[in-house]
Amino acid sequence: MFTNLEHLGLAVNDLEAATALYTTLLGQPPYKREHVASEAVDTVFFQVGGSKIELLAGTSPDSAITKFLAKKPEGIHHVAFEVADIRAEMERLRAAGFTLLNEEPKRGADNKLVCFVHPKSAAGVLVELCQSVESEV
Ligand SMILES: CC[C@H](C(=O)O)C(=O)SCCNC(=O)CCNC(=O)[C@H](O)C(C)(C)COP(=O)(O)OP(=O)(O)OC[C@H]1O[C@@H](n2cnc3c(N)ncnc32)[C@H](O)[C@@H]1OP(=O)(O)O
Ligand SMILES: [Co+2]
């Protein structure tokens, strides 16, 4: 079951400049900065009510964010939903014909297990499923 819009992922060229901008825009500082080596990204998280903004910058040429920004302007990169049971949701989406970008859940940022759905099977939106690690059975 999808339980919440967990975060909006924004791809940015200059993480420090974007962090300063969003600190002013949101009127609050980020609550977390995290490097995710497996994705070759640096992330900065802001909490906005029940949702979050995740700023992402690529840290290597083969980072998905670097590749994205080589072809597209800065902006919305993905939408992430919180799920109660990521494995069950992956099975459900596979059976429904969605293309998943990873076979198994993988460690994401912010203490989450994550999986991505290809934008081509989600009406042009890169969708991320997130399950809190603490809640993993
Ligand atoms: C996990 C840490 C953190 C977290 O929250 O926990 C993150 O969120 S990390 C986020 C970065 N990691 C990822 O995005 C992993 C999943 N992404 C991928 O596997 C690729 O980026 C992929 C498959 C979506 C695109 O791969 P690639 O760029 O090599 O392919 P193309 O450029 O050929 O794109 C194919 C096709 O898809 C369109 N596209 C690409 N990226 C996006 C996007 N973010 N949103 C919407 N559409 C996207 C692209 O335009 C191409 O379409 P076409 O019509 O053929 O031009
Ligand atoms: Co994300």
UniProtKB/TrEMBL annotation:
Coiled coil: none
One Pfam family this sequence matches: Glyoxalase_4
Signal sequence extent: none
Ranges of residues in domain VOC: 4-132
InterPro entries: Glyas_Bleomycin-R_OHBP_Dase, MeMalonyl-CoA_epimerase, MMCE/EMCE_epimerase, VOC_core
Any GO MF annotation of the entry: methylmalonyl-CoA epimerase activity
Entry EC number(s): 5.1.99.1
BP term (GO), one: L-methylmalonyl-CoA metabolic process
NCBIfam families, per the entry: metmalonyl_epim
Family from the record: Belongs to the methylmalonyl-CoA epimerase family.
Protein name: Methylmalonyl-CoA epimerase
Gene: mce
